[in-house]
Amino acid sequence: MYPLDKLAEDAEISPERSGFPGITLAINLDSKEAVAELYKTVIEKGGKPLVEPRQTFWGGYDCYFADPDGNAWEIAWAPFWEFDEQGSLKME
After folding, report:
1. How far is it, in rounded angstroms, from Cα 52 to Cα 37?
2. Strands of the chain, DSSP E
3. Residue 78, SS3?
4. What pLDDT, on the 0 to 100 scale, is given for residue 83?
5. Fewer CB atoms inside 10 Å of the end CB: C or N, the chain?
């Protein structure tokens, strides 16, 4: 991750923002336990908790945190997801 003000400076744009931008970034994992473990690690390292790990209405398990620049991240697992040999989510 790169600080917003430095990235904005590099792109020669203003770093000023306000409110929810309408997107979240996602980390998709292969188990509920991995979701809870990564969330715990992120919070211990300074991430801001937004939503504690929980069962979802769509049958999965997720949580949300904000990084130091305020970007919202989701960490998620779903029982119907498949991952390839490299650990990437298959998008078929």
Report:
1. 12
2. 25-28, 48-55, 61-66, 72-77
3. coil
4. 85
5. C
- Indicate the pTM of the whole model: 0.76
Tokens describing residue 33:
């336990």
List pLDDT tens digits, range 39-69: 999 999 999 999 999 999 889 999 999 998 8
Q: Which of 20-24, 29-33, 78-82, 85-89 has the highest mean pLDDT?
A: 29-33
- Helix (H) / strand (E) element for 82: namely none
Contact 39, 50 (CB under 8 A): no
What are the residue ranges spanned by the domains of the chain? Answer: 26-80
pLDDT value at 8 more than 90: no
Q: What share of the chain is helix, strand, coil (3-state, %, to 5)?
A: 25, 30, 50
